[in-house]
Amino acid sequence: MKRFDYIRPVSVDDAVAAFRPGAAYLGGGTNLLDLMKIGVIQPDTLIDLGRIAELGPIEMLPGGGARVGALVRNSDLAYDRAFAAAFPMVAEAILAGASGQLRNAATVGGNLMQKTRCAYFQDPHSACNRREPGSGCAARGGDNANLAVLGWSDACIATNPSDMCVPLAALGAVVEVQGPAGKRDIPIADFHQLPGDQPETETALQPGELVIAIRLPTEAADFARNARYLKVRERTSFAFALVSVAAALKLDGQKIIAARIALGAVAAKPWRVTAAEDLLVGQAPTEEAFARAADALLEGARASGDNGYKIELARRAVIRALQMSAAGTPKRMPALPASPFGDVAEEHSHV
Amino acid sequence: MSDPVTMPIRFGSNSGQSVTRRDGVAKVTGRATYAADNHPDGMLYAVFAPATIARGRVTHLDTAAAKAHPGVVEVFTPQNRPPVVGDPDKKPFMFAIPLELLQDDTVRYAMQPIALVIGETLEAATEGARLLNPQYAAETPRTGMDAEAAKPAPSGPFGRPAEVVHGDTAAGLAKAVETLDVTYDTPAQYHNAMEPHAIVAKWDGDRLEIDTPNQAIVLSRAFYAYYLGIPADHILIRSPYLGGGFGSKAVPYSPLVLTIAAARVLDRPLKLVLSRSQMFGPVGHRGATRQRLRIGIDDQAQMTALDHVATAIVDSFDSSFPEPAAGASQGLYAASALRSALMVVHNDIGVPGAMRAPGEASGSAALECAIDEMAEKAGIDPLEFRLKNYADIEPGTGKPYSSKALRECYAKGAQRFGWAGRPLAPRQMVDENGFLTGWGMGTALFGAPMFAAQARAVLRPDGTGLVETAAADMGQGAWTALAQIAADSLGLPLDKVEFRSGSSDLPDGGVAGGSGHTATAGGALHAAGTDAIRRLGELAAADPASPLFGTGNQGFIPRDGRLYAARDESRSEAYADIIARAGGEAIEGKGSASRPPEDAGRYAMYSHGAVFAEVKIDPVLFQMRVTRLVGAFAAGRIINPKLAESQLMGGMIWGISFALHEEARFDKRTGRIMNSDLAGYHIPVNADVRGLEVMTVHEDDPHVNPLGIKGVGEIGVTGTVGAIGNAIWHATGRRIRHFPIRIEDLLAQD
Questions:
Q1: Are the C-beta atoms of residues A118 and A158 closer than 8 Å to each other?
Q2: Structure confidence at residue A345 as a pLDDT band (50, 70, 90)
């Protein structure tokens, strides 16, 4: 691998001050180090955030929200009882991702920052506008069966691989960042960027800006009783989604008062359409109502290659996830979190 | 039916026991030394630069940039390639393939070595290889089954014919009352043993020591000797442990030979370990197939014809290994006419090779699904259909089976699985959670070959034993099972026998492949031990001071370190005492094993099995799980039931992988594999393997070899893939005629 400098600041201020073009912030390293090894990303300097205590805590906020430091490990967040009780679909999504070992290393900030797993992005010998602006998109016409069906452009058909970000998007999380110009908040809906004609711009971060926390607003906790994450994939565990859905409802008897839905693995960002959610307000939680919401959510979806099946699969998954959330958040984390097979009694420990 | 003939060979108390893997503790505590764990003084690191096109020429390599990188010691390209003596384009031995040793600038497949970079560290060598930034004159690669019209294969692998015909299948199909004509596709699969190919090479003058995982140590030594132009006995290969072989580690491949040649030029020890992505090209793979099966049945549902034509994708410069999938239709079902034929389509890929159950895995997948389709057309339960077409003698050849307890496998497996209540029609079963549930089955079949091996057994003056053969433990348990056989042959407990293996300075243990290693190496060890005991007995019988004096004509029974007169067990003596009186010299026995040609010609020899699968499928999302797999296998004498069952389980898990996961995904424009890592190349995870049961049915087989051993290494893959495919049909009513079967496939038909 290319040689690089390695520094280990102990405060966010020092980390940000150390940043210069060509540097990269290092969290758990579960994605960045892989990409460095295969030559996709070649930073001159790694700024290891691992010793910055202020990035560490999980704080439950008065009134029901939460603030999670960027360096909180995925496993620690999913297993935090208070957090998981308030935001069960976030915990379920995290536990549906990667493997136990990876979740123990991966951080919340890193999860937000992870790169697409598009094979052409990960291959320095393929054209990729996201990796090398202007070089083209080899994924178009290539092996693209699991790439985007929403929000893609001629320049890029990559998807965002995160599970955690899907419920965060549904719940309207806020990303706290700090950079050379100080601190600011970025709504998660604006954090990940659709490719347009500049797919290299992956997030709303300015150079040197660092994710320091995510915040879940007070009203996000209102959905705790009816919130599920569903992840459809070929393998029962340790695979990226074909499609995934975060679905949450606020019910008053048999009437939906509020709904939150986001789709994963279909676009370069978690896909949320508030108009689709609005269609459910005032409705009974029926399959017909859910189907209408699914259609609205998927409006404009089109195949970017051999992936048209994902549109129908997503439609079905949205309906199923809404049905699961209407049935109520399970008292205990399912043995297979987010799996269509997750609520089967015979499973004893999750994987 | 089991053969009732009793065995002439006496077995002691070690064989048949589920002895725990003797190397297990060393492996799980990190004390087992794998090839890449070796670090001789002065060692440098080698990394090969892989071609990133599939066809063309390399026009430029930036060697200056690579050499300028700190820590890079040397860059080998066609301009300064390390010399070899043997011609890399020739094939000096069976199983040899043309090698790429930088002899020219041609690229014949993606991931081919096009340069070798040497560094003081792995990181330096890796970055040096990256900095070469190759430029090419690329040509349009041939990729996929439609790259050209299929042609008849000149021959099959392993020296087998490309076409086998028994009877007239056209006539059989013409007279059939019901026929089936279906085509199944199987993908290219790449060996992804946990341990990638690795080598540490160290020269001393014209003598060479190499640490490398290898399934055929002595054979490979001859290969290396050819390429390097030194006598074979100047080469020492150490291969005590392999982190999986699966057929990919039987012969030397280009990156390994290149590393040895480079080490000679540099006069420094060199290590090369393939990265995961480099496993997808230069070290063999299971070639993709398209298989057309035509079956006819008469009004009794008996097969009038079974015609199986497999088109295999092969490389474009050797083409010696078309995946012999059609052969799976030979030897199993009693069709009155049988034809198996191999066709080829050339692609710009690395040379395919043997991968666990080569031919049988792909062929059985298609055959067992086609049989299920034929049973469906006949309106008959798939098990009953198989029994109606049960072969009591080998179809076509008319040879008797050396043993065949397949009926017992069917019965035992079906009973354990609960097959009896199965509805004939598909999509009839829904479980309490609403999942579509389906049951399917497949017959497992794999040949029971035997190769040649030698062994040496020594009875030491203290009465303990030493046995030696250059066998290979790929994780299957050779360290344990072979030692059990050896201990029995010497009449000693396992802990009184030192077993040396995994090194080329020992007698040739043959190849750990073809599911024949235990039979072959075990046979040689048993013969060597028996020879040592015979010599010991001669000493005792001729010694007036021995209680055994004069009993030589009745023979001896060796047991627990004592020799007993065969017809009078009151007369016995400890080995150590016999040896001490004879002068205290260790007694050496030699043994060899191979199958007598007359037996090979007289009998059809196979392991058999029956696999039953249950799948559950989400009725809307179509996500699938194999919830139960039951396999019953008859494979002759089982030396170590625990290890054998583990092998069979591993094979069945591979079957899940084949049915639902494994596939190299090619970019059809570039001929490159786009999922060349374990994040993209899926195999099952623990959560994909639910109920998994293996049973063995005992067979006494006096014909396969003196020990009556068949093999268990590969048969588990066969049968299982078809069973899962058939269960998916039974759950959904949908026939998916390719593997792996995906959510998308079921969704498309919904």
A1: yes
A2: low
